[in-house]
């Protein structure tokens, strides 16, 4: 009977088999996140949608979505178990976010932010988890503000003409102020100034001098730096206003006479005190040279003290702690993130879901150092970790969790301090970093081997007798090598 059924109904059986095979393929395929190719720009006060997609598509109840800025918690928006979670949402986003769930089944986790504020600008991380698999993508939001129409005012008579000023406020980013004659030709300004208020909005002011019979009609344009939006105002000054411009020349002459008199007095005093001041200047220069030499010697001693610890460590990575997406070299001296899950047991010592790995050797005393070479793909961090650091579930990379590290994270080189990260914009991201550990003193320091300069030193900590290991985290496509 079974054979006869297959002969009569071959098409339904084939379709059922194909669907089962496709479901199995979708479940086993690795999660992949994709953000927009460039920044998203939105005017202040309007709504914006931050796009983000993942593949393959999956059941909405099995999908956890977290949009966050620098830290997982507090977050911008969280969706888990088929519902929005608002318990630990950032205060500035409460009541202003919405996950567009209509696209979840199609692999879309777009986030809508209502009434965009200037403080909303920056990088957002779109994080999606499915069972023990996860991935993330970064979306940059730029916020603009269109300011007020320019206000043109007559300031004073100057240089045989009239000084005219143009002022406009409420712009972001910094605007450009232009003067134009009736033919649309740009006119050079006398002075320009830009200020920024507490909310971050810019105000710009520019002035120009008009003379009789030339450029008596002009326009002031304030133009947006990112877009072609602009605000403009015009002004015309008739000839009678210029009749009182020249008497200022007399006042100017009086001022010049006074300035010349002051200069003569100053020269006379300078001749009297010249020798004495020259002697003092020479003494001050000698003191500055001595102070500079002392400071240079102190910096050299500090570099030698903290970059040449007592013991150089040959770090060997521990494969039992490596996430299953991390591939170690045969000598366990280098590691690469492949994002191809290896068939290895998920033992308690292994990190999951974070792509981390520890060094085999740990320390409970002494001073040690080692170096790490980074080939940046999608970010990385290097440092030290206490042996009892959390291995499973969500982990925050900060000293309170037992991790002291620096690295390239979310597009910025920074130290993973708490409660906020410390950006290091003055440091060029090094290719080779030296990690220094003084266990008894509780000091963790980092140095650029490329530039031979200190990078960052964490506040002194107490390791409480717990063993401390070398520790690294790798972003997508990143390769790290331990030296020596």
Condensed summary:
This protein is an alpha+beta fold. The protein has 3 helices and 33 strands.
Q: Mind explaining what this structure looks like?
A:
With 484 residues, this protein is an alpha+beta fold. Helix content is 18%, strand content 37%. It has three helices and 33 strands. Strands 20, 21, 22, 24, 29, 30, 31 and 33 form an eight-stranded mixed beta sheet that branches. A hairpin with a 4-residue loop joins strand 30 and strand 31. The longest helix has 60 residues. It is flat. The N terminus is likely disordered.
How would you characterize the largest beta sheet? Answer: 8 strands, mixed
The overall strand count is: 33
Query: Which spans have pLDDT < 50 for at least 5 consecutive residues?
Result: 1-11, 13-17, 19-26
**What is the helix content?**
10-25%
Tertiary shape: flat
* Helix run count: 3
Overall pLDDT level: 85
Cα-atom Rg, whole angstroms? 33 Å
Give the strand content.
Answer: 35-45%
